[in-house]
Specification:
Layout: E1 2-6, H1 12-21, E2 25-29, H2 32-41, E3 43-47, E4 50-54, E5 57-59, E6 70-73, H3 80-87, E7 96-99, H4 105-114, E8 121-130, E9 136-148, H5 156-165, E10 171-174, H6 178-199, H7 203-208, H8 212-229, H9 236-246, H10 256-262, H11 269-283, H12 288-303
Parallel strand pairs: 1-2, 1-6, 2-5, 3-9, 6-7, 9-10
Antiparallel strand pairs: 3-4, 8-9
Helix pairs in contact: 6-8, 6-12, 8-9, 8-11, 11-12
């Protein structure tokens, strides 16, 4: 099965790299700057005692010569629309696309462009980041991909995808309720991001402040209410687990969005928050805390690149 990984950042670089390491037929669709780094240094996966260097096959936009069997879409929100157009020549009648992004906007965009049958649901559970050299750094042992048809049908094509992705150095789940799982993760990541953004620190730092744990529980309640209104209520056991993680004393946990915010990088304001708030408004679900986080992140994105004002002394 020919695999095209769209993006070779912290997520695509990790899972694509593992597939390459396991001998799968993998090509990465990347931008010129990323291609230069990968050609100079190789695709490096480090952290947790590992130092792996791989030599990936790369292709730039406009260089795709035919369809692939499986496409893993792993780009950030800011590059999503362009990536969909770039990967279009790789989509044939039998191609299946697994978008590994947070939220739901990517599904709507892909279905509009390529049709219902081509688009699966997908979730990545991994904590990785790119360091200053462009290497993939693992921050925690968890590494799992979940995927499946959004209608829950486990047909032969999806089972073939599962066979290809399995036994490649990370955990895999072929799910018959992938939409519910996507909504559950969306609830958690938006809640974690809002706790970090509104509280201005890690989970443990917010939990240590007066009212911090109440903030976390209120944010989680908002996200869960939107998921329920959408017809995908998060199971109570998962809510309990999320509540524990979001209020844990001493926890250093932060979302990748919060780390990008602190680094002055663009953040997934619309993918994770704006779309969720818009859907909440459509369902008539009040989400004042998620709305506040959305505004904060939109202001951040709007200010990137602007000169910093200096008060005269």
């Amino acid at each position: 099965m020919r695999i095209l990984v769209v993006g070779a950042g912290a997520t695509g670089g990790y899972f694509g790299g593992r597939l390459l390491q396991a001998g799968r037929d993998v090509t990465f669709l990347v931008r010129p700057n990323r291609a230069r780094v990968l050609r100079e240094r190789g695709l490096r996966i480090a952290g947790l005692g590992e130092q792996t260097v791989l030599e990936p096959a790369l292709v730039l936009a406009g260089e795709i010569e035919g369809p692939y069997d499986l496409i893993l879409l792993t780009v950030k929100e800011s590059g999503l629309a362009a990536a969909v157009e770039d990967l279009a020549p790789a989509v044939g009648p039998g191609t299946l696309i697994v978008p590994i992004l947070n939220g739901m906007r990517q599904v709507d965009l892909l279905v509009d462009r390529f049709g219902e049958d081509a688009v699966l649901g997908g979730i990545a559970y991994v904590m990785t980041t790119l360091d200053d050299f462009g290497d993939v750094q693992r921050l925690a042992p968890m590494h799992r991909l979940a995927y499946g048809r959004r209608d829950g049908v486990l047909d032969d094509r999806v089972r073939a995808v599962h066979e290809t992705l399995s036994d490649a150095g990370f955990d895999t789940v072929l799910s018959d309720r992938i939409l519910g799982a996507m909504w559950s993760k969306w609830t958690f990541i938006s809640s974690l991001g809002a706790v970090n953004v509104l509280g201005g620190g890690s989970v443990g730092e917010v939990a240590a402040a007066a009212g911090g744990k109440a903030l976390a529980e209120a944010v989680l309640g908002e996200g869960a209410a939107v998921a329920a209104a959408a017809g995908h209520p998060v199971p109570e056991a998962e809510i309990d687990g999320y509540r524990t993680m979001l209020t844990k004393d001493g926890s250093p946990d932060t979302s990748s969005l919060f780390r990008d915010l602190n680094a002055g990088l663009p953040v997934e304001a619309e993918q994770i928050f704006g779309d969720l708030v818009a859907r909440a408004e459509g369902y008539g679900v009040p989400v004042p805390l998620l709305s506040a986080a959305t505004v904060r992140l939109r202001v951040h994105n709007a200010n990137i690149g602007k000169p910093v004002a200096v008060n005269p002394t």
